[in-house]
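Loading example: each entry is read as two labelled lines plus one structure line.
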Amino acid sequence: MKKFRYLLYKDYLLLKRDLAGLLLMFLMPVVLVILMTLLQESTFRAITDASVPLILINNDKGELGKAIDKELEASGVFKIERQIEGKVPTLQQIEKEIASSRYTLGIFIPENTTENIQKNVARYVLATFSGAVELPAMDSVGFVIYVDPTTKASFYTTIMSTLKEKTQKIEFDYIMKEITRQVNEISPIPISTAGFAGQQVYIDIRDAQLEGKDMVPNPVQHNVPAWSLFAIFFIVISLSGSIIRERQDGSFSRLLTMPCSYTEYLLSKAIVFTLVSLMQFGLMLLIGVFVLPLFGTESLNLGSSPLALIILGLSAALAAIGYGIAIGNIAENFHQSAVFGAISIVIMAAIGGIWIPTFIMSDTLRMIGMFSPMHWGLSGFLEVFMKDAGVKAILPESGMMVLFGLVCFIIAIAFNYRRRLDV
Amino acid sequence: MGDTYAIETRDLNKTYKGKDHPTLNGLSLKIPYGSLFGLLAPNGAGKTTAINIICGLRKYDSGEVIVDGHSLANGMNPVKPLFGLVPQDIALFPTMTAYENLKILGGLYGIRKELLEKRIDELLGLFDLSASRNSYINRFSGGMKRRVNLIAGLLHAPKILILDEPTVGVDAQSRRLILEKLVEINRSGTTVLFISHYLEEAEQICTEVAFMDNGAIICQGHPSDLRNIYTSCDSMESMYLLLTGKRMRDNQ
């Protein structure tokens, strides 16, 4: 144990004197987490504050036109204009405005829409109650919607389904009201519309929530764990570099001729770099809780299980250390380890949802991202931050990271054994 | 046999993976206790492989290695504290001071703190480095680095000292100091295995030399005894060229 303390002291001194490595491990993630959170925060605000520009021409003086107008206004999704340059536009002008992308949507409700529906319903009811074999054909009643052709398909679908849902509900309510009125005129016993009101099959689509909390991470909830993981994995450069330098300058061989085993050599590095990782993690959490709010963001809610956070932090550290040791043993020189280490971490981060959250990625990329240790770590942290998850809930993510670290560790030992002893 | 030789290899063979020819081809080396033994060989003759095997850094294919009566086949743990290795590379931590390097390397041998401090001061003084105790290794001259490299192998007062080209790339003053101290260390009872390309150095300080080529010992004895055998040779260098040939060698 006394001898092992000297190994720890050696790795501590080597790390302490590696200024570039320390800057990479501590300063870079701090800058990144603040910068990326603020960038995403402003983008997030811009998106949520924005309204879809819509031009609405309601020429119907009846109830249906008024109801549609009122519903669109109340939805809060649209920024509604009723005139262009002080004049009510024609259908052709609306088309031209939408085509030039000044407005995303244009809705034209023709004159007498309500009246035409009333007439249709009246004829239909009369025909039904008079025992007609063939029901009269309904006159076409409707309005015109223009959509900007450059609108993204997903956005178009969302807007159109919202619009259809609202107008169909208004139309249905109105038709039921008209049928009731027509029936009451010809029937001796008055009927009520109460039994017909509303949908009979109701589908309520909501985001999954726990105790009313919003499940889409805000920029702080996403970026703090994301860049913490990135920072933890960036120790790979410094760790693999120190292994290679010691191998190249002969000090590694010298240590092995002394009463020091290869396991002790690696264990000492693992302990020192685990402490570094935990310090990085702690620093990033402090930034999330205390520093980011100074820039106007929300403060990071750490959840209710500090133990779960510690386990996740340790698991991520083990994964990164295993990976660093593997690179340090496989790479021939420092240049190789630095380039491969940095690129592989950036790829792991990209597919793991560190830069861009995975929920906005394509299915294929999301599936590839499932193999990134950073994705496992991020999922675990989001469980704790957003669902108040405890230790049990994060064990799968934590276990995957530990397993990854162990596999890397075994590869490193096997590689070193073959290379060093030439067996 | 173990009582006579500090290091003994018996019919040692080693062929690296992917190589056609063996690097060690039945190497049988006998280094008596108390000797200052020079191992002389051209590049690629297998001397570094032999040293690495003796120090436990490489596996061998067949044969036997016995260090101070311990067969390496039974593990390196009993052997490690017995010898000090001074590698050809400056195997030190360049971002640490001379004192920090020696403290860590000595500490790994399990030397008690007080004794280690005393030993560091003593050896730094012996090699004229006391004033540079707290200077960083990466600011040292080549000769100073070589001397610290040597001290690191001496901290635990090993029974056997193995030096691989300890004077390469140093000035005449540092070389003289290193050789003088090696003789002193040997006289105090330490067995020294000295590998060098400088044949005059070997002739000057070694009590016994061995010429090695193609992975085997081709000649071994006291320098003066060898002179008596190879009477046509007027120097160690001419003897070396006679035994190993004038063909250029490259490291394999």
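The two ends of chain A are 30 Å apart (CA to CA).
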